[in-house]
Structure formats: C-alpha cells, structure tokens
Design brief:
D-Maltodextrin-Binding Protein, domain 2; seven-stranded mixed beta sheet; globular; alpha/beta
C-alpha cells in the first residue's frame, strides 16, 4: 500500500519531495504503533472504590491505569476491562495481555505458582461490619450463631460459608456490597464480612458512621497486588517500579483519604 502511495505521488512533476515525506511519515507512524503494547487492566470489581463511575473513569482502577499510562510514555498502552470473575478466569487462561490489580494471590493462585505477583499496592483485611448494638469483633460460632449475614454473589467468604454449611448462620445473597451494606443499615441482616477498603468507602459514602461499626479485629489479612503473566518479565519489572512510585505519590495518598480509606 505504501509503495502505491509513493508511485502515485512520484508521477506528479512537483510532488516527488512530498511523496517521499509522506512515505517516511507513514512508515514511522506504522512502526510506532507496532511498538506500543496494549495491556488490559482487567477488573473483577464493578463497584467502589475500585469502579465508582465507568463513564467518568472514576475509581482506583482508573487512577492506577492512568498513572501507568502516564509513566509508560508510549511503551505500553493500558486499557480497563471490567469482567465478571468467571469470564476473567477464562480470559487469563487464553491471554497473557491482561493484568489484574487490587487482588490477592489467596483468591487466584494460593501457592503463587501460576502467575507473577507484584508487591502490594495496598494492604487490606477482611473485617466485620455490624450494627452498633452488636459491635462484633469475631465471627466465632458462639458470637454469630443464629444471626443473619449477607454475601455478594461471586465473592464468597470461606469462613462464612463454613458457618452457613454447619447451620450456624443464615446468609442472604446480594448483587453488590453496597446492597449488603444497605441491608445491614435497614436491619434486614445483622452483620457482614468484607474488605476493609470497600467498607470504609461505603460507610463514608452512605454516611452510616453512627449506625454501623467496623471491627478492629480482622478475620483475614491480605495484600492487594497485581497479577501478571509469568511470560511477561519486562512488564512485571515495569509494574513493580511504578507501584513503588505510585505509593510514594502524594496524589495517591490524597485519593485514598478522599475515599475514606485509611492505610
């Protein structure tokens, strides 16, 4: 195609110089595009604080992705993809051009054998959110027997599942964590267990500080890191370096603070 363009312009008496310039620009442009590696930032989350508004690109996923694009300077192009967990797992099995931020190896790769796992972007924990009259600090059988909890479909907690299976708890399904929190605020359930980060955000957003209690004790501690294909060592090195830069950046700390997240 480029040769045809060149020949067409070359036949014009006064167009030879322009033809050469056009050909050079086209070749340089094509070469530049080829060098840009598109990487998909895949998110199993579709709710806050990770995805607040997809249309407006608000949320930690977008903050992280925009930072990577700024730092990559054209070497990589990062695009956000929001995928249900089941589809995400299929995507990971078929493609190495996908990274997954803000997840724990405990959920995807317990032995850390299948994927490369970055340093923690942020440390988190599963905590208990309950009514102020309960102020639960434990989900031991003696503390929660006979109570009602809620779990988000696709994000089940192993300890809660065991208590439900043993008949100690009743669990109500929810389509989102925000729905679960609202159920708790309206006293349809007694407590729930989820990540401290999203719970802190939702309690602040819904202004429920006086109604709901976030436990001091955790049921599980974990790092929110980035899952990367092992076949992408250069990408892994880039991500590691940029996570360190991100955590040191004042705008990142300000973003967390604005979302009500203490870390």
């Amino acid at each position: 195609m480029f040769l045809k363009v060149f020949d067409r312009y070359q036949t014009r008496r006064q167009g030879t110089g322009l033809a050469k310039l056009l050909l050079l620009l086209l070749l340089l442009s094509t070469n530049s595009i080829a060098k840009i590696n598109t990487v998909y930032v895949c998110s199993p989350y579709k709710s806050a604080p990770f995805i607040i508004d997809a249309q407006q690109r608000l949320g930690l996923i977008y903050t992280f992705t925009d930072f990577l694009n700024q730092q990559a300077q054209g070497a990589y192009h990062f695009e956000v993809l929001i995928l249900p967990r089941a589809r995400l797992l299929k995507t990971l099995a078929m493609s190495t051009d996908c990274i997954v931020p803000f997840v724990s190896h405990q959920w995807f790769d317990p032995d850390k054998q299948q994927y490369y796992w970055s340093q923690a972007i942020i440390k988190d924990a599963n905590v208990i959110l309950s009514r102020h009259d309960l102020k639960l600090e434990s989900i031991a059988k003696a503390q929660v027997s006979g109570l009602i909890t809620s779990q988000v479909i696709g994000f089940l907690d192993g300890q809660i599942e065991a208590l439900v299976a043993a008949g100690n708890l009743v669990a109500v399904n929810a389509t989102s964590l925000e729905q679960s929190v609202k159920m708790l605020a309206s006293q349809r359930i007694d407590f729930l267990v989820s990540g401290q980060m999203p719970l802190q955000y939702l309690v602040q957003k819904l202004q429920l500080q006086d109604q709901l209690y976030i436990s001091n004790n955790a049921t599980l501690y974990f790092d929110r890191a980035v899952l990367i294909a092992k076949s992408k060592p250069r990408l892994s090195t880039f991500i590691e370096q940029k996570i360190s830069d991100l955590k040191a950046a004042s705008h990142w700390q300000n973003t967390l603070q604005a979302l009500g997240i203490n870390n």
